[in-house]
């Protein structure tokens, strides 16, 4: 009997140890999958649905709704009264301040960060904008019926899975703009890539944003930051409208000290424009604008610039080259979502760019979650793993020795790619994600860490 009891206890102990070991292995495998997911590209139904125009090539983009690959490109609200509110109080303090330079990390102009000025609240805008984002239905009605509809109800219920430390802010608020500039500078980024629509234009969820650009430029200059433009797929975007809009930007903002110009290998200083959803316009139309022999050529004119196309599918690299673009970027923060956003493809893309005299600008992000606006899209969520996902992306980017690294994003809250400060928050209906066990500024600190690491490694590359 004694031996039987001993054997029974031994078997129970063995089973418990085995079960714990299996759970440990499963946890490790899930963590590894989060950091480096399977090569799920646009062949899966979620990828195709988020970028439906990839299924049928179009010449022009009619609406940002068609792509659904970023939270409904919404822009900032009317700002006609903004200058009268802020201009007299700002001008005296707009020059770079030496004290700020001493307190904050030096800007790294090879670190570009995507920035959105599309948020609004009743105090500054008379209503909430973007924080009340609608819940987007799945493209399959049978699946859509299984998920909630409607829109968010700020300030407690916002269209994001995280909650900003600044609350449901307005992008018009000068104190918010300055806080953002200070955060970006503390992260040792150097160039703000500002989401931009032409004057009077916006997407279906936003309002015109161009009037806010001078204020952003002024505050950027105060913090020794530079500003470039992320040209969104506005209605009827083609070679002619792009020529006029590039001319408009350079004429209106090109003389500002915060306007970014990139020094090329030949020593030229040229503006640089990121062109979102560039692939929805055929290469022949882009070539009219971007090649020397094009009918609408901007080359060798006072408005010549570096134009960076969005690469999603592998075949886009050939289209980008034929179009006359100067380089490509990958934008998406979901490793495995697209060919371009998959870290394991960056080496081959960099090699293609090197052999064709193109710039390759990988985009790194801290994670991805957009279920607050696309409740059916759990498939593309990427857990932050307390910062490890972000550091894995930076590590992959540095391996290919890029001239520039872009960061998705400073404040795209709808898709959970922000590095802006976030805080824990719980309401009656919602429990928001947060950065615990770390502080609200952890992703700014990680960016600063990798900015310094990039600088040191770049010195070795140049040697």
From TrEMBL:
Name recorded for this polypeptide: Glycoprotein endo-alpha-1,2-mannosidase
Enzyme Commission code(s) on record: 3.2.1.130
Organism: Grantiella picta
Membrane topology per record: Single-pass type II membrane protein
Chief localization: Golgi
PANTHER family per the UniProt record, alphabetical: ENDO-ALPHA-1,2-MANNOSIDASE (PTHR13572), GLYCOPROTEIN ENDO-ALPHA-1,2-MANNOSIDASE (PTHR13572:SF1)
Localisation: Golgi apparatus membrane
Superkingdom of source: Eukaryota
InterPro entries registered for this protein in UniProt: Glyco_Hydrolase_99
Keywords of the record: Golgi apparatus, Hydrolase, Membrane, Signal-anchor, Transmembrane, Transmembrane helix
A cellular-component GO term for this protein: Golgi membrane
One of the record's GO molecular function terms: glycoprotein endo-alpha-1,2-mannosidase activity
Family designation: Belongs to the glycosyl hydrolase 99 family.
Reactions the enzyme catalyzes: N-{alpha-Glc-(1->3)-alpha-Man-(1->2)-alpha-Man-(1->2)-alpha-Man-(1->3)-[alpha-Man-(1->2)-alpha-Man-(1->3)-[alpha-Man-(1->2)-alpha-Man-(1->6)]-alpha-Man-(1->6)]-beta-Man-(1->4)-beta-GlcNAc-(1->4)-beta-GlcNAc}-L-asparaginyl-[protein] + H2O = alpha-D-glucosyl-(1->3)-D-mannopyranose + N(4)-{alpha-D-Man-(1->2)-alpha-D-Man-(1->3)-[alpha-D-Man-(1->2)-alpha-D-Man-(1->3)-[alpha-D-Man-(1->2)-alpha-D-Man-(1->6)]-alpha-D-Man-(1->6)]-beta-D-Man-(1->4)-beta-D-GlaNAc-(1->4)-beta-D-GlcNAc}-L-asparaginyl-[protein] (N-glucan mannose isomer 8A1,2,3B1,2)
Enzyme class: hydrolase
């Amino acid at each position: 009997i004694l031996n039987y009891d001993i054997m029974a206890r031994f078997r129970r102990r063995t089973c418990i140890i085995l079960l714990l070991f299996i759970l440990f292995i499963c946890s490790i495998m899930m963590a590894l999958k989060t950091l480096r997911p399977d090569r799920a590209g646009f062949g899966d139904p979620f990828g195709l649905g988020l970028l439906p125009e990839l299924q049928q090539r179009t010449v022009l983009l009619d609406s940002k709704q068609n792509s659904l690959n970023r939270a409904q490109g919404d822009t900032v609200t009317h700002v006609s009264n903004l200058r009268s509110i802020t201009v007299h109080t700002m001008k005296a303090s707009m020059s770079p301040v030496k004290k700020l330079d001493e307190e904050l990390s030096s800007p790294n102009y090879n670190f570009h960060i995507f920035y959105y000025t599309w948020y609004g609240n009743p105090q500054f805008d008379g209503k909430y904008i973007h924080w009340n984002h609608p819940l987007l239905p799945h493209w399959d009605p049978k699946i859509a019926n299984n998920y909630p509809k409607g829109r968010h109800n700020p300030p407690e219920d916002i269209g994001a899975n995280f909650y900003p430390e600044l609350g449901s802010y307005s992008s018009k608020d000068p104190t918010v703009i300055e806080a953002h500039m200070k955060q970006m500078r503390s992260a040792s980024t150097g160039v703000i890539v500002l989401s931009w629509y032409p004057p009077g234009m916006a997407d279906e969820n936003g309002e015109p944003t161009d009037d806010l650009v001078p204020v952003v430029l002024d505050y950027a200059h105060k913090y020794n930051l530079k500003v470039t433009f992320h040209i969104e797929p506005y209605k009827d975007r083609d070679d002619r409208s792009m020529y006029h809009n590039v001319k408009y930007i350079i004429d209106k903002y090109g003389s500002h000290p915060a306007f970014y110009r990139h020094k090329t290998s030949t020593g030229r200083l040229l503006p640089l424009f990121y062109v979102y959803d560039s692939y929805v316009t055929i290469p022949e139309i882009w070539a009219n604008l971007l090649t020397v022999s094009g009918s609408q050529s901007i080359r060798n004119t006072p408005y010549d610039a570096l134009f960076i196309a969005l690469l999603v599918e592998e075949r886009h690299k050939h289209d980008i080259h034929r179009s006359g673009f100067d380089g490509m970027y990958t934008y998406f923060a979901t490793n495995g979502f697209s060919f371009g956003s998959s870290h394991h493809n960056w080496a081959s893309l960099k090699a293609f760019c090197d052999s064709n005299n193109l710039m390759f600008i990988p985009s790194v992000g801290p994670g991805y979650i957009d279920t607050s606006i696309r409740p059916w899209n759990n498939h593309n969520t990427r857990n932050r793993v307390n910062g490890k996902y972000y550091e894995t992306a930076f590590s992959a980017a540095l391996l290919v020795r890029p001239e520039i690294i872009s960061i998705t994003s400073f404040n795209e809250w709808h898709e959970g790619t922000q590095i802006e400060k976030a805080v824990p928050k719980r309401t009656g209906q919602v429990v928001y994600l947060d950065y615990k066990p770390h502080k609200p500024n952890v992703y700014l600190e990680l960016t600063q860490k990798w900015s310094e690491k990039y600088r040191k490694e770049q010195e070795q590359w140049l040697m």
